[in-house]
Design brief:
The chain has helices spanning about 5-15, 25-50, 55-60, 65, 70-85, 95-110, 120-150, 150-160, 175-200, 215-230, 240-245, 250-255, 270-275, 305-310, 310-325, and strands at about 210, 215. It is mainly α and about 325 residues long. It has one domain (about 25-320). It has a two-stranded antiparallel sheet. Helix 2 packs across helix 3, helix 8 packs antiparallel against helix 15 (about 310-325) and helix 10 packs across helix 12 (about 250-255). The longest helix has 29 residues, at about 120-150. It is globular, with a radius of gyration of 23 Å.
Length: about 325
């Protein structure tokens, strides 16, 4: 396959992803997010003012400050980079979830024997495995995100995503390829572990409920939450719902440069792991005017070099500093008597 054929194939894949229900950025999901955002803003306007002003709603949704921001242009450029230049990196992971699952199943069988096959109905087993795999994804996402916010070497790559100064659904593509590689490998471990444990307990192979080769629970959240989490819509969940699910306002807090919000709301769709490990920040009911980006940014964050080159340089500097600190110091010479 020559370079032209490869790019034509990438264009076709990008076109398919725009209409795929399992895509992280598709037109059906965007339309659903737009409808939900419009409905929420309309309800809030009616609640506060007792009347509906459609023109004000349209200005709020299609904000010129957001649409014509350099950060949005950079997100669009990074969408092209990740889709056409390095979009195949997900297939370059060190291992796959199925490999990890098979390893777990074989290891458990070798250690404890093969259990009797479960007599539970097929829909119960499939539903259970679908939920287990989704929880494996959520736990892997939380682990990956936590490590990248706490380990300087990993933060050097993840910082690119946080350099966005306004949030749009395209911001999800604002990631360094090494950040992506680490992400898919951690997810393969946690999803494969969940899949393997459930398969062994079931005593027989079980299929997930999938839509477009994507976990059906994930697809539901792609329509309900994913596109709105990187948006300007302050839609908060509070109380118990805010401890179970990460609303758009939760994720906006995560992107805030306010030190009170550092390392908060690290999950994907579920808030349970943030709640469990003490990293949950419940959003205020009223809209908070937050500032997004990276504090003390030393260069223009919207240049392509800031996405691809600077993170590598900064990560190399972290390794160099660690090597220097680990190097044994020469003994202090005692003065001659």
């Amino acid at each position: 396959m020559n370079f032209l054929d490869f790019q034509i194939g990438k264009v076709e894949q990008a076109g398919i992803s725009l209409v795929s229900p399992g895509s992280i950025f598709g037109l059906p999901q965007l339309a659903c997010a737009l409808a939900l955002g419009f409905a929420f803003l309309a309800w809030r306007q009616m609640h506060r003012r007792g009347s509906l002003r459609p023109r004000a709603l349209i200005r709020a949704i299609f904000s010129r400050r957001i649409l014509f921001n350099r950060s949005t242009y950079a997100d669009l450029f990074y969408y092209g980079i990740n889709t056409f230049a390095i979009g195949t990196l997900i297939g370059w992971g060190l291992w796959s979830g199925s490999t990890v699952s098979d390893f777990i199943v074989h290891g458990l069988r070798a250690s404890f024997g093969t259990p009797m096959p479960s007599h539970a109905p097929d829909w119960v087993l499939r539903g259970g495995l679908t939920l287990a795999a989704f929880l494996g994804y959520e736990f892997g996402y939380y682990i990956d995100h936590s490590l990248k916010h706490r380990i300087p070497f990993l933060w050097a790559f993840h910082k690119t995503h946080h350099s966005a100064e306004v949030l749009t659904p395209l911001t999800v593509f604002r990631v360094h390829p090494i950040d992506t590689l680490i992400f898919v490998d951690i997810l393969a471990l946690t999803i494969g572990l969940a899949h393997g444990l459930f398969t062994y307990a079931a005593g027989k192979p079980v299929n997930l409920y999938l839509i477009d080769n994507t976990n059906v629970i994930t697809v539901a959240f792609l329509f309900l939450l994913a596109q709105l989490q990187h948006s300007q819509f302050w839609i908060p969940l509070r109380g118990l719902p805010g401890r179970l699910l990460l609303s758009p306002a939760h994720h906006q807090i995560h992107h805030s440069v306010d030190p009170r919000h550092y390392n908060r709301n690290l999950g994907s769709f579920l808030a349970i792991f943030d709640w469990m490990f003490g990293t949950l920040a419940i959003p205020e009911k009223e809209t908070q005017h937050l500032t997004f980006g990276v504090a003390q940014q030393t260069e223009d964050p919207h240049r392509v070099s800031a996405l691809l080159v600077t993170p590598v340089v900064e990560a190399a500097g972290v390794v160099q500093n660690l090597a220097k600190s680990a190097r044994p110091k020469p003994p202090v010479q005692q003065p001659a008597e």
